[in-house]
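G., the chain you wanted modeled:
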Amino acid sequence: MSKIAVFLAEGYEEIEALAVVDVCRRCGISVDMVSVYGQQWVKGSHGISVQADVSFEQADFGGYDMLVLPGGKLGTENLEAHRGLMEKVDEFFRDGRYIAAICAAPSIFGHRGILKGRRACCYPSFESHLEGAQVTQGPVEISDHVITSRGMGTAIDFGLAIAGILCGGRKAEEMAEAIVYQRERPKQN
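Predicted structure as C-alpha coordinates:
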Protein backbone atom coordinates (compact mmCIF):
# COMPACT_ATOMS: atom_id res chain seq x y z
CA MET A 1 0.00 0.00 0.00
CA SER A 2 1.27 3.46 -0.87
CA LYS A 3 1.83 5.95 1.92
CA ILE A 4 2.10 9.74 1.90
CA ALA A 5 2.82 12.49 4.41
CA VAL A 6 0.76 15.69 4.41
CA PHE A 7 2.49 18.37 6.49
CA LEU A 8 0.66 20.74 8.81
CA ALA A 9 2.17 24.01 10.00
CA GLU A 10 0.27 26.84 11.64
CA GLY A 11 -1.62 28.79 8.97
CA TYR A 12 -1.97 25.90 6.48
CA GLU A 13 -4.91 26.06 4.09
CA GLU A 14 -7.38 23.56 5.55
CA ILE A 15 -9.14 22.46 2.35
CA GLU A 16 -5.86 21.97 0.51
CA ALA A 17 -4.61 19.60 3.19
CA LEU A 18 -7.83 17.78 4.01
CA ALA A 19 -9.05 17.27 0.43
CA VAL A 20 -5.82 15.39 -0.30
CA VAL A 21 -6.12 13.37 2.92
CA ASP A 22 -9.77 12.50 2.19
CA VAL A 23 -9.38 11.59 -1.49
CA CYS A 24 -6.24 9.56 -0.90
CA ARG A 25 -7.64 7.63 2.05
CA ARG A 26 -10.77 6.84 0.03
CA CYS A 27 -8.46 5.40 -2.65
CA GLY A 28 -6.75 3.15 -0.12
CA ILE A 29 -3.58 5.21 0.30
CA SER A 30 -2.21 5.39 3.83
CA VAL A 31 -1.87 9.05 4.87
CA ASP A 32 -0.05 10.54 7.82
CA MET A 33 -0.94 14.11 8.72
CA VAL A 34 2.39 15.29 10.10
CA SER A 35 2.70 18.23 12.48
CA VAL A 36 5.96 20.11 12.01
CA TYR A 37 5.66 21.07 15.67
CA GLY A 38 5.75 18.93 18.80
CA GLN A 39 2.01 19.47 19.28
CA GLN A 40 -0.79 17.29 17.93
CA TRP A 41 -3.28 20.06 17.13
CA VAL A 42 -2.40 22.49 14.36
CA LYS A 43 -4.49 25.57 13.56
CA GLY A 44 -5.16 26.36 9.92
CA SER A 45 -5.43 29.73 8.20
CA HIS A 46 -9.17 29.97 8.96
CA GLY A 47 -8.98 28.95 12.60
CA ILE A 48 -9.81 25.28 12.08
CA SER A 49 -7.59 23.06 14.21
CA VAL A 50 -6.82 19.56 13.02
CA GLN A 51 -5.26 16.76 15.02
CA ALA A 52 -2.12 15.45 13.33
CA ASP A 53 -1.42 11.73 13.24
CA VAL A 54 2.28 12.11 14.08
CA SER A 55 4.86 14.79 14.74
CA PHE A 56 7.74 15.43 12.37
CA GLU A 57 10.09 13.65 14.78
CA GLN A 58 7.86 10.55 14.84
CA ALA A 59 7.42 10.33 11.05
CA ASP A 60 8.93 7.35 9.22
CA PHE A 61 10.27 9.04 6.10
CA GLY A 62 11.58 5.77 4.70
CA GLY A 63 8.00 4.55 4.45
CA TYR A 64 6.59 7.50 2.48
CA ASP A 65 6.06 7.43 -1.28
CA MET A 66 5.32 11.16 -1.41
CA LEU A 67 5.61 14.36 0.63
CA VAL A 68 2.70 16.81 0.26
CA LEU A 69 2.88 20.50 1.21
CA PRO A 70 -0.43 22.36 1.54
CA GLY A 71 -0.44 26.11 1.01
CA GLY A 72 -1.70 29.13 2.83
CA LYS A 73 0.70 32.07 3.04
CA LEU A 74 1.58 31.65 6.73
CA GLY A 75 1.49 27.86 6.47
CA THR A 76 3.92 27.95 3.55
CA GLU A 77 6.26 30.30 5.40
CA ASN A 78 6.19 28.02 8.44
CA LEU A 79 6.85 24.90 6.35
CA GLU A 80 9.76 26.58 4.59
CA ALA A 81 11.23 27.70 7.93
CA HIS A 82 11.41 24.07 9.15
CA ARG A 83 14.98 23.02 8.34
CA GLY A 84 14.31 19.29 8.83
CA LEU A 85 11.38 19.30 6.42
CA MET A 86 13.39 21.21 3.81
CA GLU A 87 16.16 18.60 4.09
CA LYS A 88 13.57 15.86 3.47
CA VAL A 89 12.09 17.72 0.47
CA ASP A 90 15.58 18.03 -1.02
CA GLU A 91 16.33 14.38 -0.30
CA PHE A 92 13.10 13.13 -1.89
CA PHE A 93 13.72 15.30 -4.94
CA ARG A 94 17.33 14.12 -5.32
CA ASP A 95 16.22 10.50 -4.98
CA GLY A 96 13.48 10.87 -7.62
CA ARG A 97 10.73 10.33 -5.06
CA TYR A 98 7.47 12.25 -5.37
CA ILE A 99 6.99 15.70 -3.86
CA ALA A 100 3.82 17.76 -4.21
CA ALA A 101 2.75 21.29 -3.27
CA ILE A 102 -0.35 23.41 -3.74
CA CYS A 103 -1.25 27.13 -3.59
CA ALA A 104 1.65 29.17 -2.18
CA ALA A 105 3.70 26.06 -1.29
CA PRO A 106 5.13 25.49 -4.81
CA SER A 107 7.14 28.64 -4.07
CA ILE A 108 9.20 26.47 -1.71
CA PHE A 109 10.16 24.27 -4.66
CA GLY A 110 11.04 27.36 -6.68
CA HIS A 111 13.26 28.73 -3.92
CA ARG A 112 15.07 25.37 -3.72
CA GLY A 113 15.77 25.15 -7.48
CA ILE A 114 13.47 22.16 -7.91
CA LEU A 115 11.32 23.72 -10.65
CA LYS A 116 14.03 24.61 -13.16
CA GLY A 117 12.91 23.43 -16.58
CA ARG A 118 9.61 22.05 -15.27
CA ARG A 119 6.00 23.02 -15.85
CA ALA A 120 4.52 24.29 -12.60
CA CYS A 121 1.55 26.22 -11.27
CA CYS A 122 0.71 27.98 -8.04
CA TYR A 123 -1.61 30.51 -6.45
CA PRO A 124 -1.89 33.70 -8.52
CA SER A 125 0.65 36.30 -7.34
CA PHE A 126 3.20 33.64 -6.33
CA GLU A 127 4.35 32.94 -9.90
CA SER A 128 7.54 34.99 -9.47
CA HIS A 129 8.65 32.46 -6.83
CA LEU A 130 8.54 29.54 -9.29
CA GLU A 131 12.14 30.18 -10.26
CA GLY A 132 13.11 28.58 -13.56
CA ALA A 133 9.70 27.02 -14.18
CA GLN A 134 7.46 27.20 -17.19
CA VAL A 135 4.50 28.66 -15.29
CA THR A 136 1.02 27.54 -16.36
CA GLN A 137 -2.53 28.29 -15.29
CA GLY A 138 -3.49 24.62 -15.22
CA PRO A 139 -5.18 23.19 -12.13
CA VAL A 140 -2.39 20.64 -11.63
CA GLU A 141 1.01 20.13 -13.23
CA ILE A 142 2.90 16.84 -13.04
CA SER A 143 6.51 17.11 -14.14
CA ASP A 144 8.32 13.83 -13.53
CA HIS A 145 8.15 13.39 -9.74
CA VAL A 146 7.14 16.98 -8.93
CA ILE A 147 3.43 17.90 -8.65
CA THR A 148 2.07 21.42 -8.23
CA SER A 149 -1.42 22.88 -8.02
CA ARG A 150 -3.01 26.32 -7.76
CA GLY A 151 -5.18 26.55 -4.65
CA MET A 152 -8.28 25.61 -2.72
CA GLY A 153 -10.40 25.45 -5.89
CA THR A 154 -8.04 22.85 -7.38
CA ALA A 155 -7.58 20.79 -4.21
CA ILE A 156 -9.73 17.88 -5.41
CA ASP A 157 -7.89 17.84 -8.76
CA PHE A 158 -4.65 17.80 -6.77
CA GLY A 159 -5.82 14.92 -4.57
CA LEU A 160 -7.02 12.93 -7.58
CA ALA A 161 -3.71 13.55 -9.40
CA ILE A 162 -1.83 12.18 -6.39
CA ALA A 163 -4.18 9.18 -6.23
CA GLY A 164 -3.75 8.64 -9.96
CA ILE A 165 0.02 8.45 -9.57
CA LEU A 166 -0.06 6.09 -6.61
CA CYS A 167 -3.15 3.98 -7.44
CA GLY A 168 -3.42 4.36 -11.20
CA GLY A 169 -5.54 6.53 -13.43
CA ARG A 170 -8.47 4.12 -13.45
CA LYS A 171 -8.78 4.23 -9.64
CA ALA A 172 -8.62 8.05 -9.71
CA GLU A 173 -11.35 8.16 -12.36
CA GLU A 174 -13.52 5.79 -10.33
CA MET A 175 -13.01 7.97 -7.27
CA ALA A 176 -13.88 11.14 -9.20
CA GLU A 177 -17.10 9.47 -10.32
CA ALA A 178 -17.85 8.18 -6.80
CA ILE A 179 -17.54 11.66 -5.30
CA VAL A 180 -19.50 13.19 -8.20
CA TYR A 181 -16.57 15.26 -9.45
CA GLN A 182 -15.79 16.20 -13.02
CA ARG A 183 -12.17 17.09 -13.42
CA GLU A 184 -9.65 18.28 -15.91
CA ARG A 185 -6.93 15.71 -16.46
CA PRO A 186 -3.48 17.12 -15.73
CA LYS A 187 -0.92 17.07 -18.51
CA GLN A 188 2.26 15.14 -17.86
CA ASN A 189 5.66 15.95 -19.31
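The chain has a mean pLDDT of 96.

Shout if anything looks off.
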